[in-house]
Design brief:
Rossmann fold; 28 helices; globular
Length: about 850
């Protein structure tokens, strides 16, 4: 008998309650909080895990709570909400696009941040993945998630008495997680098989329910596995290169096989970072087998339906593997399953395919296996074009095929209770379930007094949380009872509160505020206009420099004059984040431009009326305006020599603008200048930087075109894909022989007529596009006549007035529906 139901199946209402616990909608729809709090308020506060609460309490307590009419009504209402959700035929997606435009998108990610009760996340990457899954549930977009279930997840943080970070790895007991085994109709647990050298690897499948959206997780801790392989999914981002390679084989290859076993046939495969890029190979391999075509044709067909989202701002952060390691694990797979030599497989992950010593780059594999690539902010798109430019030699950097969709956050997951109440009253209950453009004018109409009251209430809740954390810190450090009692009154609910919560690593510059400790101390302990500071964050266990930064903060915070004005909240996780972003007045971000690909922590404060003070990096580079917050930096890239200048700019802004604005009040006690910024930030930025908007952009810009393109290439036994491969072979065979003639220019009635001949060496002229290129414009040149057997004349007219030297003819491959240079990197310039 299932232990969860042991002796409880006959308790009225228990079945419905258990089903609620397994649906992660409870993690943002807080109506259910009343139930878990009634069952065990202390355990609920510590774990935020309904299953732990249900498994821990007695039957007597359970019966008593379920007999409470108010609790029974909450359960009934939630069950009704669930039934309506799954019966709904008018989701935003179906209303706007219908089910025939897109059957399924498979979203692969190494981590998903959905709830603290499912600790399979580390930070920003998981945050984006989790929030987008929640948003596709809200909008009804047919997306299914694929990830890994880690036995220990990411490390838990303790700050010891010396102020040093200690890393712990508690075991995640599956029966206490909101997951269920995926079972076949005959009751058998669905298991996926992968062949590793000398051994079969069995992967167990689990299901996570996120409303109407499903996330499937694989884990290797199957008793049938070779003992070392049981630990492949032991921890997130742990171990060495070999363990990481095996994890990514499990995610990409095992994940696609899981979808096959479930009968899910996605038209679109979305790779969230390069970790799952082996899915590109598995998808093409499956297509090859089913259609009896070569791997090259299979890849030409399937890549059209693949999207690669890169989150990395520095090339060294991409996963790279030694060729011998890749060969050890994938040679049999390449030869027997894909029909490739090892050299051909390794070439897909190299800048120089013929360099046998070059490592295998997962991002390069993702690019060569995808029909589109995007960064996660406008600035990051530009940075990524620089990073990937070596793969597209001779193309201008601005034409490197990387677009962008700026990240957004799932607003309903990050709004505090007081903010949710205000938004509901102003904009309605379903404000995040479809179009959001109308929200801006509605929130601007809210009276200043109401906005300010919400901010005071939200700050009070966060301060109470901070006091409880401070009390625990004092107890752990052995302070006296009197000192601990004083902690309960420290931090003031009416004091300007700054928040900083990030991964502690050098490029995020978490210690910029500590550049001048005495100046910071004066800012914090000012008697007339005091400031308090809440800090949180982890440093990777291998990042000694990051851990040193934490220790520096602990030393400062522990000063007697600072203790009541600053706190470091340990074990930074989703729960801590929720508390901080709900209550802080000002969120700080000090990353070194342009290393913050996007950043989502500052987006989370928007819905709660928090303001941002940030480097002009990531999302803030496109969000910032004086009406919505403050910025440091000049919007350019600088080295470490600029750190001191920006630290002083940070202090100046705090002392001369931010703090005075917060404490400057009208006769009703409202800081009108501050509230004006709050209101404008809430109205202008919250919808714009929501996951709702991001998912809609992914759907419209990438998913729908990718699905259509894939269907075209896959139809009729991959007929179009075969034509594309034949075209590519012809281009590759002839391209080195193409040659431009001399360029002639004539002025005709205020226009320049450019003419140039191009020798094609027998290549079909329809396979080539000739363009007139300038740094800020590209115009196609028309093929006007055939000059001899293989030479054609091309012409274009341009308005006169620009220097003639700024224009250069060039030729690139052309095939309808094929992305150049992503799928064909050849180019020839006239000079």
């Amino acid at each position: 008998m299932n232990q969860r139901n042991h002796r409880r199946e006959n308790i009225p209402g228990y079945g419905s309650l258990e089903e609620l616990a397994f649906d992660l909608i409870w993690s943002w729809d807080h109506k259910a909080d009343k139930i878990w709090r009634a069952l065990d308020p202390e355990l609920w506060g510590l774990t935020r895990n309904p299953l732990v609460v249900l498994q821990t309490i007695s039957n007597e307590k359970l019966k008593a709570v379920l007999a409470d009419p108010s609790i029974a009504k909450v359960i009934a209402d939630l069950r009704q909400d669930d039934e309506r959700l799954h019966a709904e035929k008018s989701t935003w997606f179906l209303t706007n696009y219908g089910k025939n435009r897109l059957a399924a998108v498979a979203y692969f990610s190494m981590e998903f941040m959905l709830s603290e009760s499912l600790p399979i996340y580390s930070g920003g990457l998981g945050n984006v993945a989790g929030d987008q899954l929640k948003a596709v549930n809200d909008l009804g977009v047919p997306v299914v998630g694929v990830g890994l279930l880690y036995q220990r997840g990411y490390f838990r943080q303790i700050i010891d008495k010396q102020g040093a970070q200690q890393a712990l790895y508690p075991y995640n007991s599956p029966e206490q997680l909101p997951i269920k085994p995926v079972r076949l109709p005959n009751g058998e647990w669905l298991r996926v098989e992968i062949a590793l050298p000398g051994w079969k690897l069995w992967l167990r499948a689990w299901e996570v329910k996120v409303g109407r959206t499903k996330l499937y997780l694989l884990d290797s801790n199957d008793p049938a596995n070779y003992a070392p392989h049981r630990g492949i999914t032991s921890e997130l981002y742990g171990g060495g290169s070999e363990l990481r390679l095996k994890q990514e084989i499990v995610l990409g290859i095992g994940g696609w096989r899981l979808l096959e076993a479930l009968g899910i046939e996605p038209e679109v495969c979305h790779l969230n970072e390069g970790h799952p890029a082996f899915a590109v190979l598995e998808r093409a391999g499956r297509f090859r087998q089913k259609n009896g075509v070569s791997f090259e044709v299979a890849l030409a067909a399937t890549r059209a339906g693949n999207l690669f989202t890169t989150h990395t701002a520095v090339p060294v952060s991409f996963d790279r593997f030694d060729p011998s390691l890749v060969q050890e694990y994938l040679e049999f797979y390449a030869n027997e399953y894909l029909g490739l030599s090892m050299q051909e497989l390794l070439a897909l992950g190299r800048e120089n395919p013929s360099d046998a010593k070059e490592s295998f780059n997962m991002a390069y594999l993702a690019i060569r296996g995808s029909g589109a690539v995007n960064g996660v902010s406008r600035l990051h798109g530009s940075v990524s074009r620089q990073i990937f430019s070596p793969l597209f030699p001779q193309f201008p950097v601005q034409e490197v095929p990387v677009g962008y969709v700026t990240n957004g956050v799932h607003v309903r997951s990050w709004d505090c209770a007081k903010a949710d109440e205000l938004w509901t009253q102003a904009c309605g209950k379903c404000r995040w379930m479809g179009e959001t453009e109308e929200l801006e004018k509605k929130i601007r109409a809210v009276p200043d007094a109401k906005i300010w009251q919400m901010r005071n209430d939200a700050r009070k809740e966060m301060i109470e949380f901070g006091r409880a954390q401070l009390e625990r810190v004092f107890q752990s450090r052995g302070l006296t009872a009197a000192e601990i009692e004083r902690a309960r009154g420290q931090f003031n609910i009416n004091t300007l509160t700054l928040g900083f919560a990030k991964r502690f690593t050098a490029y995020k510059r978490p210690n910029m505020l500590l550049h001048d400790p005495e100046r910071l101390a004066r800012i914090l302990i000012n008697q007339e206009r005091p400031v308090q500071l809440v800090i949180a964050g982890k440093a990777h266990p291998a990042d000694r420099a990051g851990q040193k930064l934490i220790k520096q903060w602990m030393k400062f915070i522990w000063r007697p004059d600072i203790r009541s004005h600053a706190i470091f909240v340990g074990d930074y996780d989703m729960s801590v984040t929720e508390r901080l972003v709900g209550g802080v007045d000002l969120w700080l971000n000090t990353s070194r431009r342009p290393w913050e690909a996007c950043g989502t922590s500052g987006m989370k404060v928007l819905v709660n009326g928090g303001l941002n003070l940030s480097e002009l990096d990531g999302w803030w580079a496109e969000a910032y305006a004086p009406e919505v917050g403050w910025a440091i930096g000049d919007g350019k890239e600088h080295g470490e020599s600029w750190d001191a200048r920006e630290a002083n700019q940070l202090y100046d802004l705090l002392e001369n603008e931010i703090i005075p604005a917060f404490y400057r009040r009208n006769k009703e006690g409202i800081p009108t200048e501050w509230v004006a910024r709050v209101k404008e930030s809430m109205a202008r930025l919250t919808p714009r930087f929501s996951a709702n908007r991001a998912v809609r952009e992914y759907l419209e810009q990438y998913y729908l075109p990718a699905a259509e393109n894939y269907r075209k290439r896959a139809a009729n036994g991959a007929g179009l894909a075969k034509q594309i491969v034949d075209w590519k072979h012809a281009v590759e065979h002839n391209w080195s022989n193409l040659q431009f003639g001399d360029l002639t220019v004539q002025e005709q009635g205020g226009q320049y007529l450019f003419e140039v001949g191009l020798y094609l060496d027998g290549l079909d002229p329809k396979a080539v596009k000739v363009e007139l290129f300038a740094s800020d414009a590209v115009q196609e040149m028309a093929r006007v006549k055939q000059m001899d057997k293989s030479t054609y004349l091309y012409a274009a007219k341009i308005k006169a007035g620009r220097p003639l030297a700024s224009f250069t003819p060039r030729a690139i491959p052309l095939f309808p529906g094929v992305s150049t240079p992503l799928e064909a990197t050849q180019i020839i310039w006239q000079k």
